[in-house]
Every structure is written in C-alpha cells, then in structure tokens.
Design goal:
Protein name (chain A): ABC transporter substrate-binding protein
Number of helices of chain B: 16
Strand content of chain B: under 5%
Number of helices of chain A: 20
InterPro entries (chain A): SBP
Structural class of chain A: alpha+beta
Radius of gyration of chain A: 21 Å
Number of strands of chain A: 12
Distance between the termini of chain A: 25 Å
Shape of chain B: flat
Helix content of chain A: 40-55%
Largest sheet of chain A: 10 strands, mixed
Keywords (chain A): Membrane, Signal, Transmembrane, Transmembrane helix, Transport
Distance between the termini of chain B: 38 Å
Pfam family, one (chain A): SBP_bac_8
Order of helices and strands of chain B: HHHEEHHHHHHHHHHHHH
Family (chain A): Belongs to the bacterial solute-binding protein 1 family.
Helix content of chain B: over 70%
Largest interface: A-B, 48 and 38 residues
Radius of gyration of chain B: 26 Å
Structural class of chain B: mainly alpha
Oligomer: heterodimer
Strand content of chain A: 5-15%
C-alpha cells in the first residue's frame, strides 16, 4: 500500500470509520488493488470553449457526485467548458498519473498530495507555474507554497492544508487526575504512563509510513532537520534526531504506553484512530482529517485537541493537497483559469462545506469556519507554522520506503533504534543524490 | 473453400488428389493455421509485446522521476538485484509460498473432489458452497479476513481472549512468525476449490466400468484409489499443479492486500518486491528485471514439468 506520503494517508479515510472494524482496511485494499477510476462526475458546460479533465484522489471524488464535481460543473457552465472530474484511490493516483502522463496521455489538471509535487515535477510531468503563482503567492500559507516548489520553481497551487495535533480523551484525563493536555515531551510521557493500565493505553503510534510520517514533528521539536538546506544529505540522524527517535520509539519499547496492536496499523488512518475512538487509548497524534471519522464513529466521544508538545521548540508536520497543471494540458491558459478559480477565496466553501477541510489560504485565519469548531481552530492556528517535508523527487522512496522499513525494524525489535536510524540516513542520502 | 474440404483435411489428402490439385490441397492443409492467424496475432500483441517491453525496460535505467537519465545500461539492473539480499529473501519466500500452496491445495483439493464426487444428498448445494471462496473477488476476501483477524475488533481474537486461550490479541498479519503461515492458509482457502473442481472433472471422466472391473479383481477402496483413480486423473493433477504453481508465484493480491509484504519483509515475495521497486522507489528498470527473472523461472519450471510428464506418459502408454 502503494499503498502514500501524507495525502495518501488521509486519502485512506474513505473507508468509513463508522462501521468500526469491518471496513478497516477496505479503503486501503481498494487502493492496493491498482484498480482504475472509482468515481467520475462533472460535465458542466457545452464544451464550446474547450474541455478539461481533472484527476483527484477519492478523498475528493469518492464516486458519483462530489463537491468538487459540482464546482467543476459550476465553472463549466459559466465558461462553456466541458469539465470532467475523475477520482482514483489515493494510493494509486500518483502511479496512474506518472504512467499515463509518461505515455503521452492523461488529465489537464491533477490534485495531489503536497509531498508528491516534487516527484511529478522531476518526472517533467507538470507545467511550470512560477510566473502565474508568484503574484498570488502571499495568499497561501508559506509551508504549502514551499511544498509546491521544486528547485526554485513553483509547480502547483496549494488547495487544502492539514497538520498534526494532539487529540486527548477528556474523560480519561479526568479519571487519571490530569487537568490539562501535556505541553512538553516529559509531560507527555508521564501523562501517558498515568493513563496506561487495565487494558488502556496512553499514546498511539502507527507502523510503516505512519511511523516515519509522525516522527518528523519530534525531530523538528528537538531542533533537528530532515536534510541539509540544499536537500542533498539526510541529517535526521543528528544527535537531536537520534534523541527524538529514541524517545519516540521508547514510548512503545520502554514506556509501554502504546497498545501493541499498533503494529498492525499499516494501511489507513482509520486503523490508527480506532483505539482512540473506542477509548482504549487516551492520546493520539492526528490530523484534522481525523475529526470527521471520530464524529461519525463515536459521536459521544469527549475529546480535546491541543498543539503537539514541544521540546526546544514547537513544531508539526504539514500536509494537504495542491492543484497542478500537467504537461498534457493543451490549453494551459484555460487550465490555469480553472486552477486559480478553484483556489480562490470565493471557492473556499467547496473545501469547507464539501469536505470539512481547511483551505490553504491565509485568509482562513480568523474566519468563521476556523472559529466554529475549537478542534479545528488548533489546526488553523498551526497551519501558519507547520513545516513541510523536503520537496525532493524521491521523497516517497524515503518516507514510505527507507524510513518506513527502519521504523518497522525498530518496533518489530529487529534493530536497535539508533542503528536503524543511522542506516536509514545513509540510504536516504543515497536516494537524495541518486540520478 | 467448402465445408467438405475442411472436414476432409484431418483424414489427410489421398495420394491421387494430391497429384491432381497440389496447390489447393496444400492451402487446405494450411487453412486451420490461417484461421488461427488473427487470434495468434492478437495473442502475440497482448502477451508478446508486454513481455518484450519488460525485457527491454529491464536493460535500461528507467526512473520516471529522472527522465533525462533514461539510458541503456545492459545488465546493470540484474547485477543490482542479484546483489540485493532482499531479492534472495523474496525469492526464498516465493519458493516457500508456491510449494506450500501446491502441496496444501492439491492434498485438500483432492479430498474435496472425492467428497464432491460422492452421490450424497444435497450434492449440488455442497458443490456450490465449496466453490464460494474461489468465486469471491480477492479484494472482498481480503476485507472479510482482515476483519476476522483484526487484533482489536476481529471475532477470532475476541474468541481467543474470552476463552482465555491468549491474554493479548494475536497480531496475525503483523507478527513476523505468523504472517507467512496465515497468508498461505488464506490463499489455500481461496484457491483449493478451484483445484477441487479441476480434479472433480477428472474423477467424472473415469468410466464406472473401471471401478467395477477393479472391484471384481478384488481391489479395495485403497487399491482402487491407487490403481484406478489416481492414474485416471493424472492429466487433471498435472494441470492443477501447474496452474497452482503459476498462480501462486504470480499471486500478488493474496499477499499485498493482507501484509504488503510485511512485517519487515516476512511475506515479501518477488511480486511484492517488484511492486515496491516500481511504485515506492519508482525504479521501473529494476522492477522489470525482477519480473523478467520471475518469467524466466516460471517458463523453465513449467517447460521442464511438461516434458517430464509427457515423457512419463509416453513410456506408460
């Protein structure tokens, strides 16, 4: 499971958490099967002024009519353009885009995870949008722009933004006599220990790429960096990195505050959030995309959301999606017109109402949407400072290959944490420099 | 060309006719192949082209994220995968996986076929129930079994814990020791009915007279099994084992949908290894090299198998 990287992960939320266990993995299975488009919709106008095809993950196009396809219709009928929206299983999308566009066909526009833009750009599948985006750059959060930038050129326009915060169970906290969510590493560890016992656990982790993805905040909080500023060498095995990795792994290995079943969390965020949803786990790191499945799966759950704890500084990892024009777009101006329209302030409602996702526009700060829900407010607040992962072509191979394998070898107790991290850094550097 | 002429062909042209209309006769002899030509061309396109393309890709540096570096690199990809310990582990797992599937499916499939062959009440119902696992799409199988095996909400673990057989839930698919046996059993569960149906067809083709004759000669149940049934279904057995090995080696879904080759490579076979090379590392060249090795291996094994079976038949008959 191709199934990947951050947006791939939230994409897995398509499996409905409400059915609890049964559908767990169903989404991921869908994406692993390399099946073709799951949903399509949108036709819009007459097509007098051209046609546009958009590929997105099933996060946005779960099949049949979706908010995105409705928006596309809207654009189409206003501009006499025939707009088609097609959805693909999140894990499959990037593979489909790469193979189809390399073969000369494919969509005019794609909506992809921010961490995959650099990969598509390096494959020379995207149009350079630098000149068009630069004038409106300041409308978007800097982290999202950074993620859409590769080797000095901008290849995509930020669409939605997400990041990771700390979810905590208020009732379990009350019972354990803990008055407020932890704000530092030490507080988090001691709270997690307090909350563990009698079949309950303090903190949640994931396996595979979920492990590597959720390591980055710890690394940054401790003052470490993933790579050198020029992205040529992996530096996450610095002393800060090693300390963060050890702390992170010890939550399971030494502190025993993590349910051992986390070893099976390999495919979806639904798997990840299930123990928290069923009140088996008191705290978990989770993106804003976890709010909706929790509300559906356990509406009575009393939980709060707090910023991630800090060490030498506070930090969290940035995700979300971006809209890119592909090299297959025959009418680049029309494709751009749609892109700038979809990512404009007027169309924020598509994300807000249709998907309950946070637009990557700075004007969202202080908006009604941001303030309506206290949980969401934390994510909006973090959006301005969330850190994007390095925009490098081989990022998927690092996060879901090298680092996922390293994390698994640690939690499966095959390698000592420090050894695994050092080896992973060497392998990642090889991926960064590989031509 | 008339129907009679076509019918005439298998019997072979008479010497007299051959001397009168040699060209016509030759064309007639050729006609079956001409009829086959479109299908053969289509097959060559559908089967041949991808194979050749994979072979060509395996000789190139083909990394889509680095298109400008595309170039012919000879056997470099092969050297790289042969020098990779993970490849050999995956190869070993592929062998284990195929062998276990072969032995278990054939043994259980034979037993099932014998049962299905009995004249029992409700045989039709029994037969259709037996083939259910085979007709259910593998994605659905995966959803069902992953639910049953789920550590937190799966009924199997709930049963084990409520009866006190285990204290902690068993992570069937995330435990290095259990992952491979479990995916093998699930694959056997899914594919045994298919083997059983093939063997059942073989059983049904054995004339009742042979059984009667054997019984008159004093053969018991065991004797009939050894001397009538097994020789009678030899062709079906050959077919079933060849198909089982082929399907198992290529069975990507049966592993990927459950474990993605994990945990830490415990269920990694050559197909999941190739998939990861292609779609995690985006190294199409190396992935193609693995696929070609797989293809060559299967080709050799199946050819050798066919020859040995054909040879045995030749001696016996």
């Amino acid at each position: 499971m191709r199934p990947r990287v951050e947006g791939r992960l939230p994409g897995l939320l398509q499996a409905k958490a409400s059915r609890r266990g049964f559908l767990i993995g169903a989404g991921s299975i869908g994406l692993a099967t390399a099946m073709a488009g799951c949903g399509s919709g949108g036709s819009g106008g007459s097509g007098k002024n051209g046609t546009l095809t958009i590929w997105a993950s099933t996060t946005f196009v779960p099949g049949g009519e979706s908010a995105l396809s409705k928006a596309a219709d809207d654009f189409g009928s206003k501009n006499d353009v025939k707009v088609t929206v097609q959805g693909f299983a999140a894990n499959d999308l990037i593979n489909k885009i790469t193979t189809t566009l390399s073969g000369g066909g494919g969509p005019d526009l794609v909506i992809v995870d921010v961490s995959q833009v650099a990969q598509l750009a390096a494959a020379k599948l995207l149009a350079d949008l630098t000149d068009r985006v630069t004038p409106i750059k300041s409308q978007f959060f800097p982290g999202n722009i950074a993620a859409a930038t590769s080797e000095g050129k901008i290849y995509a326009v930020p669409y939605d933004t997400s990041n990771v915060a700390l979810f905590y169970n208020k009732k379990m906290f009350e019972k354990a006599g803990i008055s407020a969510p932890p704000t530092t590493w030490d507080e988090l560890r001691s709270a997690a220990k307090e909350l563990t016992g009698g079949g309950k656990y303090g903190y949640m982790l994931g396996a595979k790429g979920y492990g590597s993805y959720l390591y980055w905040p710890w690394l940054w909080q401790n003052g470490g960096q993933v790579t050198t500023p020029d992205f040529t060498k992996a530096t996450f095995d610095s002393p800060e990195g090693l300390e963060a990795w050890q702390f992170y792994a010890d939550l399971y290995l030494k502190d025993n505050v993590v349910p051992p079943t986390f070893l099976g969390v390999t495919d979806s965020w639904d798997q990840f959030l299930q123990p928290f949803m069923t009140e088996t786990v008191a705290m978990m790191p989770m993106g804003d995309f976890g709010i909706a499945p929790l509300a559906k799966g356990n509406p009575k759950l009393e939980y709060g959301v707090a910023p991630m704890p800090k060490k030498v500084q506070s930090s969290t990892v940035l995700g979300g999606n971006a809209v890119a024009v592909t090299k297959a777009a025959k009418n680049a101006d029309l494709a751009w017109k749609f892109t700038s329209w979809l990512t404009s302030a007027e169309q924020e409602k598509v994300l807000e109402e249709g998907y309950k996702r946070i637009p990557a526009r700075t004007d969202i700060t202080g908006s009604d949407f941001a303030g309506k829900d206290p949980a969401r407010a934390v994510f909006v607040q973090q959006a301005a400072t969330a850190v994007s992962r390095p925009p490098v072509p081989n990022w998927g191979a690092i996060e879901w290959g090298v680092m996922a394998d390293a994390w698994d070898s640690v939690i499966q107790k095959k390698k000592a944490p420090a050894d695994a991290l050092k080896a992973a850094a060497t392998d990642s550097t090889a991926k960064l420099t590989k031509k | 060309m008339t129907l009679t002429e076509v019918k005439h062909t298998p019997a072979g042209p008479s010497p007299a006719a051959a001397s009168v209309r040699p060209l016509r006769q030759r064309l007639t002899a050729l006609s079956p192949f001409l009829y086959l030509l479109p299908a053969l061309l289509a097959l060559a396109g559908i089967l041949g082209y991808p194979v050749l393309d994979a072979m060509w890709t395996s000789l190139k540096h083909s990394v889509p994220t680095d298109p400008s570096a595309d170039r012919f690199t000879g056997l470099a990809n092969y050297r790289a995968i042969f020098g990779n310990g993970a490849f050999w582990t995956a190869l070993g797992h592929t062998g284990l996986w195929a062998l276990a599937n072969l032995v278990l499916q054939l043994t259980l499939g034979f037993g099932l076929a014998l049962l299905m062959h009995q004249k029992l009440a409700g045989r039709a119902l029994f037969r259709s129930v037996v083939i259910i696992p085979w007709v259910v799409p593998s994605v659905v199988v995966a959803v069902i079994w992953r639910y049953l095996l789920d550590p937190t909400s799966g009924p199997l673990n709930q049963f084990l814990m409520s009866t006190g057989l285990t204290q902690e839930p068993v992570l069937w698919l995330a435990n290095q020791a259990t992952a491979m046996p479990v995916v093998i059993l699930l694959s056997v569960w899914k594919w045994t009915p298919f083997v059983a149906v093939i063997l059942l067809a073989g059983l049904q083709a054995i004339p009742e007279e042979l059984h009667e004759a054997a019984m008159i000669d004093g053969a018991g149940l065991w004797g009939r099994l050894l001397h009538v049934v097994i020789p009678g279904i030899r062709t079906s057995l050959t077919l079933a084992s060849l198909l089982t090995v082929g399907y198992s080696v290529n069975n990507f879904n049966g592993i990927w949908l459950f474990t993605q080759g994990g945990p830490i490579g415990a269920t990694e076979t050559l197909t999941t290894f190739a998939y990861r090379k292609a779609f995690t590392e985006f190294d199409f060249g190396s992935a193609a090299a693995v696929a070609v090795v797989l293809f060559a291996g299967l080709f050799i094994v199946s050819t050798a198998y066919f020859f040995s079976v054909e040879g045995r038949k030749g001696r016996k008959l």
